């Protein structure tokens, strides 16, 4: 379950029992499917870049996808698709929220 305060959710390429999820390009595939969901909606050529709401990356040696809360606000079915992908594949999910930058020292 994802709390309402989380701004970002990390879907890790590691199953609940610690195995690496396959195929190795799963994160890029998932983010590619979600590329049409973006601020302002899909536009010509938007399929050529990832949505800022669903970005593949790595954490340590593991692939992951960072899903921003704005995706849920924009299209709840798209959010459910991503969360169900994680659930159906028994992937680990971690929440995160942005913290303000510390004040600049003078």
From TrEMBL:
Gene3D superfamilies: Uncharacterised protein PF12112 family, DUF3579. It holds the Pfam family DUF3579. InterPro entries: DUF3579. It comes from the Bacteria. This is DUF3579 domain-containing protein.
